[in-house]
Structures
1.
Amino acid sequence: MVDAAELRRACAAAIDGYGGGYFHGRDWLRAAFLEVPREHFVPDRVWWPSRQDGRYPLLDRTERPRQWLKAVYRPLAALITQIDDGRVRPEDGPAADGCFTSSVSCSAVIVDMLHHLDPQPHERVLEIGTGSGYTTALLAQRVGAPGIVTVEIDPDLARRAADNLGALGLAPRTVVGDGEGGYAAAAPYDRILSTAAVRSVPAAWPRQVRTGGVIVTPIDTPYHTDALLKLVCDGHGNATGHLIKPVTFMKTRAQRPRRSYGELGWPGWSEHRVTVGADGQRIRTEGR
Ligand SMILES: C[S@@+](CC[C@H](N)C(=O)[O-])C[C@H]1O[C@@H](n2cnc3c(N)ncnc32)[C@H](O)[C@@H]1O
């Protein structure tokens, strides 16, 4: 029988092999990853995120426990827990089509996001997109569950996540609602982490973060990928920051429809000025 703790250790080793070591030498992050049983947050039936023979395969813990557990600890895979807001059901088997609407996030990406978020012990953190509660549990290892407010728009997912967390003795404030509004009742926060992508960062987020506090969120870009965005807040509702790297995430519910990139503030293609010379190539954005 494959042992979950053994697979978790192997997964941690693989994660540390990516991009110069995704734990970035942060001992707390590695310890948190090794402490949290990811399998506890994964439903018995989940979809694998890549098509095989035209369909997304269903992984069934009861029928094939070994295959299911190995998938839980594949470092670069998110496991799909919901399609089309629950209209496609795991009982129906492999999925031919549909839009992924919730998952247990990819381990390597979550570890990297937590590194960039850089939460400190006893800080107050707002998480948007509770999903299964797995990311919340990792965060709780660092800041402590009482410091976390986690918001999930889907009531069934929120309830399941609260149960999963509770079974491990973790009781963050779990809120059912639209996280684009943040959660003003418990503001100000030291940090906000969103594991749902936005096209436009909601104005409520920097309004609810203290001076010098940080927001980490995936944002849609015109470059055919989302990117990880890190913002530092000024305590007056403004935030400034930069893109870190490409990632792929589900959009927040209200931001699923496409919008014009010009309207969202992105530079147009012709604003990228390219210079080529003996020193090589440079690309800058003009007029911004
Ligand atoms: C990629 S999943 C998060 C997975 C989570 N990090 C985990 O590891 O289990 C994104 C989640 O964001 C939720 N979501 C989408 N729009 C939201 C919104 N406006 N407010 C709160 N949650 C939202 C979705 O229902 C989904 O569960």
2.
Amino acid sequence: MHFSSYWLDTSEPFVSRSPDVPDGSCDVVVVGAGITGTAAALALAKKGARVMVCEAETVGHAASGRNGGMCNNGFAQDYASLSQRIGTELANRLYLAFDAGVDTVERLVREESIDCDFVRTGKLKLAAKPEHYDKLARSQALLAASVDPDTRLLTKAELCDEIGSNHYHGGLIFEKSAGMHVGRYVRGLAKAAESRGAYILERTPVLGLQRGSRCGYVVRTPRGEICAPQVLLASGISQIGPLGWIRRRIVPVGAFLIVTEPLPHELLDRLLPTRRMATDTKNFVNFFRVTPDNRMLFGGRARFATSNLSSDEKSGLILRQQMATVYPELTDVRIDYCWGGMVDMTANRLPRAGQRDGVYYSMGYSGHGTQMATLMGTLMAEIMDGRADLNPWKDFDWPAIPGHFGKPWFLPLVGAWYRLKDGLQ
Ligand SMILES: Cc1cc2nc3c(=O)[nH]c(=O)nc-3n(C[C@H](O)[C@H](O)[C@H](O)COP(=O)(O)OP(=O)(O)OC[C@H]3O[C@@H](n4cnc5c(N)ncnc54)[C@H](O)[C@@H]3O)c2cc1C
């Protein structure tokens, strides 16, 4: 068993052409080389900007190379409840931003010839309880009437064409969603950005950020200082460097995945014949899909814990049991990969992007970020060029989470509350 991301293990490593800080200045420093940072670097370089991306580790090392590879439209949360909370007009605008995110991934894959098995499989949202089916039905009626006629509700009986499991009580299909090999995707974005002239400096943590009199901002790294008039924080949960303001607003929450040995086509045709990206309605969510080389990927929140080697291993055992509950036929299959990653949650599970003290930022995708990080990376190039009106998240303020100073001490309590809700609802 490999305790590492299947996606990073099965894609060509990114080899940077920029081993040293090329010179001490550029137009934009991007902090972080996940999907947001590499998509932004590509878009900025296309506009003619001299860009340096500082990445503390390696390209895609964090959430961007560790996720489920699901490129889904729609919200992670229930559409009906969200539109009631923020209003239908705004909810629909944000919903369409996720559609645009999937379209942007598709466009970049095509334009930059990124070989990452992007396929519009559709998403299957599965009701974990009979009451959850009623919720899905309510959302689907509203979605179909106002913003997404391509959604389709399935009763428990109708699910048999979609999934070889009796575990669920109905489902909702989102046709525009897609799947991809996210390791090849994020590394492909980095390669494309470099080919347009951006520098990607791996193992270059940003340790200091100050407004400078000479040049806008002075970005301090162990490899030297970089001066730039503009800085973009594409740094996810960032646990290092001078980003305490963000750490008080983002809650890092662990999510975990296992991947089986390659499985026979006939078996997969029974388990998930349409190959959709599947996810369920629990707070302790499970999600699963088939990889491009015919393995079952099965993930979830598992324990509401942080990700590290021993935590990933414990979570992997829980996921294995959960997978066997959904698919008894997979009880004895070999597990080849097990890993985890930290999701950048905001309090209301909606992303944030904008500018603070002149520094731009985009993050907080709350587990729904392959498409939104791509869209926002691309849009940040425009927003930094004076088009703040294009920011889909401009209407949201971003107060610090009370009592949160960077270490989410309250996570076990939230986990217990979610477990209780999953039991009650
Ligand atoms: C386990 C898991 C499963 C998920 N599944 C899905 C899914 O199936 N579909 C989906 O849409 N979304 C999913 N997500 C969410 C999605 O992966 C993220 O929203 C997205 O990848 C965020 O990209 P990003 O570039 O903003 O951040 P990240 O990928 O976290 O990248 C930020 C980068 O910044 C670097 N950095 C931080 N601080 C500094 C510093 N001071 N100096 C230099 N570099 C720094 C980090 O090293 C990191 O590489 C999942 C997330 C996880 C963790």
